[in-house]
Structure formats: structure tokens, C-alpha cells
Design goal:
about 120 residues; mainly alpha; about 75% helix; globular; DNA_pol3_delta-like_C; nucleotidyltransferase; transferase; DNA binding; DNA_pol3_clamp-load_cplx_C
């Protein structure tokens, strides 16, 4: 939410807090981001097909923070979501092959994403 609102500092602080609060974040953060963006991608496809948001929420299993999810979805195109998923895949590959560290890679990814807003 902070990224799409153009609040880069807040987004980076949230990420750093995630890493500080839970050691396992280093191993789960890319997957968590990918899960969120895959849900956004699926929901955006359905909305673009004319399906109402309540039905989309049920199909995509969006149970909490529906309003925030759909507000975020309105600010982003299907193409952008696809690009973010590609960037996440590249980030995941770079982390797994030892080219970068998770914290650094995720901060860079957030900066790239925020540059669009």
C-alpha cells in the first residue's frame, strides 16, 4: 500500500521492520510478495472481465482488508503487475544464486516499484 501511495520511506521501514521482527522473513518475503501479486493479477483479470469485486473477493479468497486490496488494484495496471512478478522472479533467482542478499534485493525492488508512482 505504501508503495502505490508513493510513500517509499514508509514502505522501506515496513520491510525493515518485517526483517527485524521475524528472522524467517529472509526466507519467506519473496514468496509472500509473489503470492500477493499473483492474487492481484488474478483479481485484476476478473475485474477487467466485468466481474464485480464481491464475487472476485470470493473467487480469489480475499477475506480481510478487501477495500484496501481493491483500492490498491485500481492504482495499478495488469501490465505493471506482470512486470512486478517478473522482477520478483529475477530477484528470487539472484538471491538463490548468491548474487545478492535478500534484504538488499527487496529494498531495491521496492525502490523500483515506487519509482512508477
Amino acid at each position: 500500500d505504501a508503495v502505490t501511495a508513493g510513500k517509499v520511506g514508509i514502505a522501506i521501514n515496513h520491510l525493515r521492520k518485517m526483517f527485524a521482527d521475524d528472522r524467517s522473513t529472509e526466507f519467506t518475503v519473496v514468496g509472500a510478495f509473489a503470492f500477493h501479486f499473483r492474487r492481484m493479477f488474478g483479481a485484476k483479470v476478473l475485474i477487467d472481465k466485468g466481474i464485480n469485486s464481491n464475487k472476485v473477493a470470493g473467487i480469489m479468497r480475499i477475506w480481510s482488508q478487501k477495500d484496501a486490496f481493491f483500492a490498491q488494484l485500481k492504482k495499478i495496471s495488469l501490465t505493471q503487475i506482470g512486470e512486478y512478478l517478473q522482477q520478483l522472479a529475477a530477484t528470487d533467482y539472484a538471491i538463490k544464486t548468491g548474487r545478492t542478499k535478500t534484504k538488499v534485493a527487496m529494498e531495491q525492488l521496492i525502490l523500483k516499484m515506487a519509482a512508477r508512482y
